[in-house]
Design brief:
- The protein is of the alpha+beta class and about 425 residues long.
- The chain has 15 helices and eleven strands.
- It has a five-stranded antiparallel beta sheet.
- Strand 7 and strand 8 form a beta hairpin.
């Protein structure tokens, strides 16, 4: 009976404190404009609510899988905790897994993980951490945890921490968005008037000194197709008849110069808004991209990164090249017109290069024991090519390596008929390794 009364009292206490802190947060959010100050204030609320020694934000590098504390607050009584600098995934793989499952990390007593996670246990003990609560987040601009060290009350209740983490992540994204906008502003102001940065992956984007033109702003299909074709083939003048065949593949054009000139005239109405009215000009009886512009194209930079990745033996160079290629590959090449016959080969070519990069980096990560990262890249590959057996093999291998045996067994049964004997033996090495 006394235990029931204690439970009810504790529950009521949780509810009262939850409401009190949420009201305080709402008031502070309306009064504070600076995002960093808001984050520190929210961490202080977590500190008080859980009666903890420290609250902090760990942000992970999604490619390098290294975590760093970017914000932290301490209680007045406890300031001797060591600064957290979480190492690579191979040491804290549990943390990485929690991010992708979006489950809180709850450790009421650090002694409970001594046997199953000895490396993590030793690290926490060295930092004088006896209990811990951490809430994962994975949003557009950032991934990581909101952590609370040595909580003394409400330890197993993560609902308040989740609510606060949403507000913290919103401010983190605001900070990163502002920084990105400022970088872009500086880039634009330092660009030469004739520098253009053109992206084709995920859709057409042209960024210049006077603004950015997105492909969906060019509502006329013929204008869009002509601009894309001229940008792709900008290094050589294309015959007028060839341009006409691109724009009217199933029709005979009696006066191609006149008809294409009309398309160019309409195209200029879209280009004028970003100061590029002279981007397309007439030359030698045809139409070209004005050679005064210095144009940097994403698929050319992507291909350069791919070659660097494949030819350089340095792991550091490979990692940098892969990050660059992944950053550039924002999706299929020109999805709006990927069905056109002159676009299809390029779509296939660059998608093939990216899939090959993924397969190579996955194998490197498996060899290094970075299974969560390898599985993440395998999932990316399957999103692009759902029937690729190599990505399926990598997925099941990572499941077995991370001890998700029931899921791994089920997944294996689904793909077993697609596997070669060599692939089955490779998977078995991980299945029976432990």
């Amino acid at each position: 009976m006394d235990m029931d009364k204690n439970a009810v009292t504790a529950h009521l206490g949780l509810g009262v404190e939850y409401k009190r802190q949420m009201l305080a947060i709402e008031k502070n959010l309306s009064e504070i404009a600076d995002s960093s100050s808001i984050i520190n204030n929210l961490l202080s609320r977590l500190l008080f609510f859980y009666n903890a020694d420290r609250a902090y934000v760990i942000e992970f590098d999604g490619d390098l899988m290294v975590g760093t504390v970017t914000y932290e607050v301490y209680s007045q009584e406890q300031t001797d905790l060591l600064n957290i600098q979480y190492p690579q995934e191979s040491t804290f793989s549990r943390w990485i897994q929690q991010i992708y499952s979006n489950q809180p990390m709850i450790i009421p007593d650090v002694e409970a993980i001594k046997d199953d996670s000895p490396t993590e246990y030793e690290s926490l003990k060295k930092q004088n951490i006896s209990s811990q609560l951490a809430i994962p987040f994975s949003k557009k601009y950032t991934i990581g945890f909101v952590g609370i060290d040595n909580p003394r009350r409400f330890v197993t209740n993560s609902s308040f921490a989740f609510m606060v983490s949403y507000a913290i992540v919103a401010e983190l994204n605001e900070i990163k968005l502002q920084a990105s906008t400022e970088r872009l502003r500086k880039q634009l102001t330092t660009h030469q008037e004739t520098d253009l940065y053109v992206s084709f992956f995920g859709g057409l984007t042209i960024c210049g000194a006077h603004g950015t033109l997105h492909g969906d702003q060019i509502t006329a299909d013929q204008c869009y197709q002509l601009l894309v074709y001229l940008l792709i083939h900008r290094k050589r003048i294309r015959p007028l008849r060839e341009l006409a065949d691109v724009l009217w593949p199933e029709a005979a054009v009696a006066d191609p110069y006149r008809d294409i000139k009309n398309v160019v005239y309409r195209l200029k109405r879209f280009l004028v808004d970003v100061g590029l009215v002279d981007l397309v000009i007439g030359s030698s009886g045809s139409f070209i991209i004005n050679p005064k512009y210095m144009i940097y194209v994403d698929f050319e930079r992507f291909e350069k990164a791919y070659v660097e990745f494949q030819t350089d033996s340095s792991l550091a160079v490979k990692a940098t090249a892969f990050q660059m290629a992944s950053k550039l590959y924002k999706g299929s090449l020109l999805p709006r017109i990927e069905h056109l016959h002159w676009v299809m080969p390029r779509v296939s070519y660059y998608q093939g290069l990216y899939l090959q990069l993924l397969k190579t980096i996955i194998q490197c990560e498996i060899n290094e024991g970075l299974y969560s990262s390898a599985q993440r890249h395998a999932i990316t590959g399957l999103e692009i090519e759902p029937y690729d057996v190599d990505f399926k093999v990598a997925s099941v291998v990572c499941m077995y390596a991370m001890s998700n045996r029931s899921l791994a067994d089920s997944y294996y049964l689904n793909i077993e008929g697609e596997l070669t004997n060599q692939q089955k033996e490779y998977i078995a090495a991980f299945k029976y390794r432990n």
